[in-house]
Amino acid sequence: MHILLTGAAGFIGLHTAQRLLDRGDTVTGIDNLNTYYDPALKHARLALLNGHPCFHFQALDVADRAGMERLFAGQRFDAVVHLAAQAGVRYSITHPHAYLESNLTGFGHVLEGCRAQGVGHLVYASSSSVYGGNTKMPFAETDAVDHPVSLYAATKKANELMAHTYSHLYRLPTTGLRFFTVYGPWGRPDMAYFSFTKAVLEGRPIDVFNHGDMKRDFTYIDDIVEGVVRVLDKPATPEAAGAAPYRVFNIGNHDPVPLLDFIGCIEQATGRSATKNLLPMQPGDVPATYASTEALRDWVGFAPSTPLAEGIGRFVRWYREYHRV
What is the mean pLDDT of residues 112-132? Predict the structure, then answer.
């Protein structure tokens, strides 16, 4: 297939592109290479892809309407994997316009391109953040998600609503994936596991919010990519006569880990102890995430399973090599 991959210089984008290229697909990747975190890491990821004869990259912002229209008008795509977005819960509190432009306007341009071209399947990144203040565990796709606690979460829920509209009106098959705390090599520096590892190796204290009383359903990057590719190959279909070809799935490890145990895995992998600076809960955060994965398993026969200690060990080895520490 010829696949358009947005956010190709991102963490999940890199690994998804590699998997698609390895199996013989042609990938056109776009990314705006913004400065939310060090662009050098994004360029280093792209360097791993640019030598592949079936990978083609364009520096393009999904919020650029004219540029997106030219992209879709100039090429034919069998499917689209949309991973480009302004990420981060806390950043959305201080920089709301970045989320409105990228996550809402940009997603609208992707939907319009898919509609105009008759793309066979749109797979897009949602987030476990849509569950907001929900307290029923584990989070299931059938749960109400009407109370987001951050603008980031609200934009991801809006993406799901926008996708459903296009599936209903234009019969565009769309599948949203609610990612649960993705981690692994080449990850984002703003994520806790990355900043914790950096601080521990540098002998600095780490900030532990809600006094460590938090749980996360950490999901290793290889599991995420396996889910993305399997879902990509099985487009959403109407579940009943007249229904929209629309699906949403959780991708999580179905194993919430206490934050202090998570820090313990980093200590074990680095061989160093962490000095913890215990702080109150941050605005927009939630105390726990926990994915129900039955729907994904029933649809494509897969559920994430990489143990946290194994995944953190792989990340720490990459971190030491990349940063030469």
Answer: 96
What backbone phi and psi angles, to 5 degrees, belong to 223? -70, -40
Tokens representing residue 235 in the block: 């487009």
Residue 7: closest CA among 63, 77, 70, 83: 83
Q: Are 293 and 219 in contact, with CB atoms under 8 Å apart?
A: no
CA 249 to centroid of chain Cα atoms: 13
CA distances from 58 to 28, 61, 98, 108 (A): 8, 9, 21, 19
pLDDT single digits (tens) 241-269: 578 999 999 999 888 889 999 999 999 99
Question: Taking the chain, what is the end-to-end CA distance rounded to the nearest angstrom?
Answer: 40
H helix or E strand, kind and range, residue 134 = none
Q: Is 290 a catalytic residue?
A: no
Question: Percent of the chain, pLDDT > 90?
Answer: 80
Worst-scoring range by mean pLDDT, 1-5, 207-211, 299-303, 313-317? Answer: 207-211
DSSP secondary structure letters along 260-305: HHHHHHHHHHHT-PPPEEE-PPPTT--SB--B--HHHHHHHS----
- The pLDDT tens digits for 171-181 are 999 999 999 99
Q: Can you spell out the DSSP letters for 80-111?
A: EEE------HHHHHH-HHHHIIIIIIHHHHHH
One of 91, 124, 152, 166 is an active-site residue; which one?
152
Rg (CA), the chain: 19
CA distance 295 to 287: 24
Q: Which two tokens stand for residue 8?
A: 């190709």
Which tokens sit at 199?
Answer: 């601080």
| Residues whose CB is less than 8 angstroms from the CB of residue 24 and which lie 6 or more positions away in sequence, other chains included | 54
Cis peptide before 280 (omega within 30 of 0): no
d(C-alpha 138, C-alpha 291), whole Å: 5
Distance CA 320, CA 316 (A): 6
